[in-house]
Design brief:
The structure is a homodimer.
Chain A lengths: L1 H30 L5 H8 L3 H8 L2 H24 L5 H18 L1 H8 L20 H17 E2 L4 H26 L4 H12 L2 H4 L1 E2 L7
Helix pairs in contact in A: 1-2, 3-4, 4-5, 4-7, 5-6, 5-9, 7-8
The structure holds a DNA duplex.
DNA sequence: ACACGCGTGTTACTAACGGTAACGTTACTG
DNA sequence: CAGTAACGTTACCGTTAGTAACACGCGTGT
């Protein structure tokens, strides 16, 4: 009896939690990362304290919300990186998957990149060096793992793979962010340019006349 | 007289402005980007409204503060990118200069990367796609210019250079951020690994046994 | 029937923040 | 000495995150 009751309650709580998360999702999609707890509670048809009972604080809610989208995006990226094709094709597919995602849902993307902003309670310690969005860290780590698993990089391969994982993710992120703001070219062109960069065209390019090149 | 008066006043105002900025600098260095206007005013020995008279709003103060550091860092980077050496050496010097800067002053670095956080007044429009720190944008644009000036990239070189500029800066940033948090290796190793990545080692690396490589 | 918990929800509050209006005070100028 | 203009303050507003205290519904043990 005790057990069945507990599972019953837990189910109910989980369902409520999902409902709240979906409401929060709608608000964040509408108002951006600045969405207030009041607004989210109102959208869910309830009031603040319930949110706090479920998620502890704003960081908790945002973490839960971010995890959903992060999981979804990472799933897509894994599919792209694991596709049956050559290395270059898969790199391009991965880049394109990421860029398509941020293009399709820029608000969600922005939320994922700046989840914990606006925290003004306490927070004196302000983790230096850990300010990046969890999404970036997770993508970096996952990519590092893929690289280390599949590429033969000689000695020190593990560290090299991690550096590359985070570096490539950062490249993708920064270029995507800039591209999303200015739209200077098509997505396909952007993908090609980035892949060219990773393929060493920077080193291979010839100097322009007048002094040594970059 | 009018002119002398004006210059006199302007000088005084500029001096005061510099004092306020230095006070703000100290507070940001101590409390991180969450530093409150009250705290900054107190550090400067004055009260809030004076800050607002000088800088308009928090964004204005932070922009002014960020510009100083950004200018300083960009100066160092320009020196590194313009040094008389080969391309690879200069790329490594540029990376190392950036990493040394963020290593030396992580609080300042974190502030520069997240300057406008915590804004809670209005701000409904939340510029999608322009959320990146101004420092990143400026570095990306400057690097793009250098690349476009000195490298012979064939047709479409301008767009390619811009993509690469922002991409490389993002790579540097993300890798640096991760490195600063975990310190998995020395700065020199990180620089070498990133330069290797830019030099096409990702494309050149051999597959590990078992299926096609990444 | 009745009290007891327990989960769910509310109202009403605190403390802190960004920002501003209204009021002194100093000092320079006619 | 009157006017004015910058410098500075106190006291306030509206909004935010977060919390305490109270109220309702509901199954349970005695």
């Amino acid at each position: 009896m005790d057990t069945t009751q507990r599972t019953e309650q837990q189910r109910s709580a989980d369902r409520r939690r999902r409902e709240l998360l979906e409401a929060a999702d709608r608000v964040v999609l509408r108002d951006g990362p600045q969405a207030s707890m009041n607004a989210i509670a109102a959208e869910a048809g309830i009031t603040k304290p319930i949110l706090y009972r479920h998620f502890g604080d704003k960081g908790g809610l945002y973490a839960a919300l971010a995890q959903r989208h992060t999981d979804a995006l990472l799933g897509s990226l894994r599919a792209a990186v694991d596709a049956p094709a050559g290395r270059r094709e898969r790199v391009e597919a991965t880049l394109d998957t990421y860029l398509a995602a941020i293009e399709a849902r820029p608000q969600v993307y922005r939320f994922l990149m700046h989840p914990a902003e606006g925290s003004q309670g306490g927070d004196q310690g302000f983790d230096v060096g850990k300010h990046s969005a969890p999404l970036l860290r997770r993508m970096g780590e996952e990519l590092a793992q893929v690289i280390e698993e599949r590429l033969d990089l000689g000695p020190g391969s593990q560290q090299l793979a991690r550096v590359w994982g985070h570096g490539i993710v950062g490249m993708m992120h920064a270029a995507g962010d800039w591209w999303l703001g200015e739209r200077p070219c098509s997505r396909a062109e952007l993908v090609r340019s980035l892949a060219d960069l990773l393929w060493g065209r920077l080193a291979a390019a010839g100097d322009k006349m007048g002094g040594p090149g970059f």
